[in-house]
């Protein structure tokens, strides 16, 4: 080990490097490892589809998307690639494959690969086989394990059609696709997830375990070398319980420094521009990917799905159900999206959907009965009680009694949205 000051700095930078990985591991463990967890998806290599919109009872993920029900999947790429197949699909959908860093290896989607049928190879970092015949492309991940939070647009309340589309997503090992013998991967002993460990120095034990499945990338060489110099070398053998008192104090101080740094960076982020993307887009952008993981784990890049929203009002005060608010879009301010846009309300600090008397959790350009002004403007009424005016009630987004936030999403946004120049109107107290 090195001196205390240097060790503290490395611990701080290791937290910054690894924060998103640990946030990802929480979900991976619950969904793909712990068969007793109600969120278990069936293990690696299978999808679990949610064929109805989310409600306040769903707590699998913070800031759940209420427009495009999810299809969860996790894949072990150590022994061989997987074959991902989709049919022709007549609506917005996306199967985005993220690595252990939460960075996207690639997408199969209406926005990127189109609405026609396709077959794709999902491969890990050790794959050297190129693109087999009759495949439309290869998605190569930088880590041995990837996750997929698929989305499929829910239209006209047709649950049966939604379910049919979701179950048309196929994932099989390459060996099965080729009719060849199935190679075996070494069994793993995953460390049990402990929620408290995400904010104490056991964080580093998890990080070292995960690094063994993440070969060092060139853009990460400096931090990976410095981490290795203090034992975080990806062998999975690092234990903070083996540290002496001075080393432990340095790691604890570095952890606190890292947490404070992330909190500060996150406090200045007002939309999703730069927070999500592929390796080419996110190389070295540790702060950005951490803010994305903290504020909206598994969010999508703006060209596919843009995220913005409101946490404070026009006066700079945190928004709460004790006050009635309006959000007024001029005709020119309305989000211009190829597919659709919506605004969803979440409780704070839970960031879950808020129960209300009309079961409306989001509002947008697909909401029946929404009233526009004669000039094409749209005013949303965000408040706890139902508005007395029928036209205001048509545009009502119900709020809880306590604090909340509103997140807006635009799918397939125009250039202004994709490039980050689009600006939302303020949320204003009445």
Automatic annotation (TrEMBL):
Residues 47-171 form the DUF1254 domain. InterPro entries: DUF1214, DUF1214_C_sf, DUF1254, DUF1254_sf. It comes from the Bacteria. Residues 311-413 form the DUF1214 domain. This is DUF1254 domain-containing protein. It comes from Microbacterium yannicii.
């Amino acid at each position: 080990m090195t001196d205390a000051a240097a060790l503290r700095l490395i611990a701080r930078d290791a937290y910054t490097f690894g924060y998103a990985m640990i946030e990802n591991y929480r979900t991976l463990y619950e969904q793909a490892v712990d068969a007793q967890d109600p969120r278990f998806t069936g293990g690696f290599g299978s999808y679990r589809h949610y064929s109805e919109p989310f409600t306040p009872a769903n707590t699998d993920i913070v800031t759940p998307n209420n427009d495009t029900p999810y299809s969860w999947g996790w894949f072990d790429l150590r022994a061989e690639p997987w074959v991902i197949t989709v049919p022709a699909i007549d609506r917005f959908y996306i199967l985005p494959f993220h690595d252990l860093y939460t960075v996207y290896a690639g997408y199969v989607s209406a926005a990127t690969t189109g609405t026609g049928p396709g077959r794709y190879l999902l491969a890990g970092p050790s794959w050297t086989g190129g693109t087999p015949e009759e495949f439309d492309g290869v998605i190569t991940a930088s880590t041995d394990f990837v996750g997929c939070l698929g989305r499929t647009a829910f239209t006209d309340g047709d649950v049966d059609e939604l379910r049919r589309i979701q179950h048309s997503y196929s994932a099989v090992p390459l060996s099965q696709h080729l009719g060849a013998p199935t190679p075996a991967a070494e069994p793993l002993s995953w460390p049990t997830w402990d929620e408290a460990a995400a904010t104490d120095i056991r964080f580093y034990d998890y990080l070292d375990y995960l690094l063994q499945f993440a070969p060092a990338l060139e853009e990460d060489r400096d931090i990976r070398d410095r981490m290795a110099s203090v034992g975080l070398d990806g062998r999975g053998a690092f234990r903070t319980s083996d540290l002496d008192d001075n080393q432990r104090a340095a790691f604890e101080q570095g952890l606190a420094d890292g947490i404070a740094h992330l909190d500060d960076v996150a406090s200045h982020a007002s939309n999703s521009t730069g927070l999500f993307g592929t390796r080419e887009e996110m190389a070295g952008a540790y702060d950005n990917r951490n803010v994305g993981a903290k504020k909206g784990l598994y969010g999508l890049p703006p060209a596919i799905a843009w995220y913005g929203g409101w946490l404070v009002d026009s006066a700079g005060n945190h928004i709460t159900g004790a006050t009635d608010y309006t959000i007024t879009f001029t005709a020119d301010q309305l989000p211009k999206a190829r597919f659709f846009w919506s605004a969803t309300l979440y409780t704070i600090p839970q960031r879950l959907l808020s129960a209300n008397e009309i079961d409306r959790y989001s509002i947008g350009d697909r909401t029946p009965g929404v009233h526009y002004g004669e000039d094409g403007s749209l005013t949303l009424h965000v408040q706890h009680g139902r508005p007395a005016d029928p036209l205001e009630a048509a545009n009502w987004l119900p709020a809880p009694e306590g604090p909340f936030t509103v997140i807006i999403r635009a799918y397939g946004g125009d250039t202004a949205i994709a490039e980050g120049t689009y600006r939302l109107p303020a949320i204003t107290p009445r």
